[in-house]
Amino acid sequence: MIIILKQNTTTQQAHTLLEELEQQGFKHHFSEGEHSMIIGLIGDTSQVDMQQLLAHDMVEDVKRVSEPYKRANRKFNPDDSIFDICGRLVGEGNFSVIAGPCSVESEEQMIEVAEAVKKSGATFLRGGAFKPRTSPYAFQGLHGEGIRLLLEAKRATGLPIVTEIMNQHHLDLFNDVDVIQVGARNMQNFELLKELGHCNKPILLKRGLANTIEEWLMSAEYIMAGGNERVIFCERGIRTYETFTRNTLDLSAIPALKRLSHLPVIVDPSHATGLPWMVEPLAKAALAVGADGVMIEVHNNPKKALCDGAQSLTPEQFDAVMKKVTALAAFENKKI
User: Fold this and answer.
1) What is the pLDDT of residues 104-159, one digit of tens each?
2) DSSP string, 15-80
3) DSSP 8-state assignment for residue 161
4) d(CA 290, CA 60)
5) d(Cα 37, Cα 14) in Å, to the nearest integer?
6) Which has fewest Cβ within 10 Å: 61, 108, 130, 163?
7) Which of 275, 237, 230, 240 is nearest to 253 (CA)?
8) What is the pLDDT confidence band of residue 101, given thresholds at 50, 70 and 90?
């Protein structure tokens, strides 16, 4: 249920109403935008008397929300969310570029790639310390050592780091990580999502291989219900009948999420297609349809990469892509 307050309502008056609702046993989400204040009641509101709420002098309107996701719902928070992560703004007119190798392999590799992508304009550094692989015999990542090497690269370049968590029991290893990524395979690992809801770090939530947009929104709701409201969606392609590309990039998901939710949305064209020559046109397409950023795989020697080398760009190729994306971002009046 949403309670829309009148424009002349003061913050103090709004908090008086919030206290009254709390005394009645309701949990709430309070959003103070530029032109309005909105209270979202969370939980079973079937017994709430809408007419009694409308009787308050400060209440403009009361609406019931049918969607099961509440905190992630744009109706609860009409303004776009914007997150400040180590001085980098994500969302609302800012276009973030997350770049780096699929997996962390060595200190030399990470620092070389980090310096290269920073020079080309990347705003975050990615790299997998834990790697979920289809085959148990494939390289699984360096785990804690991989996070240490990411932090070395951060110290060398100043780039905030993004890396994937696979198990809630590893959370202590992520104390110094700037953005925790939840991979496609863990999008519905609800115990992990609940634990991430209690941590004070931005969460990059990738879409599952065959999940609907509503299921994706509900996964974000799991995190937000725990108190962590800094969730960033990442569209990385879904599994369809098409075999030309690794997955099928669902660009329609970006405007759909923008309509349904206030949370930022980025696109991963590398995992979506598995084809490095598709990264540039799809990164530009992502920007054009309203994405708040892209995640691109970059390796200093893709032929010798231990993971996903075939879909990785070289630093030189990434630099060429960034020149095109930066020009388009300027045309779209977005900042990188």
Assistant:
1) 999 999 999 999 999 999 999 999 999 888 888 888 889 999 999 999 999 999 99
2) HHHHHHHHHTT-EEEEEE-SS-EEEEEES--TT--HHHHHTSTTEEEEE---SS--TTBTTT--SP
3) E
4) 31
5) 8
6) 108
7) 237
8) very high
